[in-house]
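**Tokenised fold:**
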Amino acid sequence: LEGDLYLPGKPGKHVVVLMVHGGGWASRDRNDMTSISEKLSRHGYAVLNVSYRFAPAHTYPAQLLDLRQALHWLAVNADRYDLDVDRINVWGYSSGGHLGALLASYDFAQTDSVGAYPALPRIRAVVAGGTPADLRKYSRSPVVMRFLGGARDELPELYAEASPISHVSADDPPVFLYHGKLDLMVTVDQATDYYAALRANGVEAELYVNPWLGHLAMFVLGGDAETEAIDFLNRKNSPTLVGGVL
């Protein structure tokens, strides 16, 4: 597995964003997230834009484990690159948003199915766009079946375990969700239901819905959402702002 590390041109400890691309857990690559990674770097963030293993050759939880490995890499290399391990955030879109949200809320200590890992840094805040937060809504989606290894009726417990909405608890980090209202691939109720679950559990959450965009257009044309998401990260990481830049 590989990743691209973007470092801002400023001294001191860098707030970090772990960047996760989409592609139905089975395609695309981290180059899709180059633009937003560069934008975040210009705003003073260090960004690790990562690759992960693909379904169907590698089904869940392989992708989640890969993100845990990326967290481990950040912790091990924190001193080398002046990374602030107390302020590591995650940003993803589509299946990348799903994985990022799941990483932030998953209680690894209580679950054996994802393997044993040492204690790693907690996620400070989450930005998730176009996120399928409840996989239980997909009974026989070829994309989800490829990711989980079967249909919902065959694997009901796995569909629940792999859904970020199933892991929401009061100690989750703040979450910024953005979504296109015209999204037919990942319908907007995925965002509104997840937002409601977060708020019901006392988790700080914000929801940005664009009324005119679908799934791909929200990713390509979501500049306003990205601006609000960066403002959200700035506030949640409590940085000292100088001229609008970390």
In short: The longest strand covers residues 83-93.
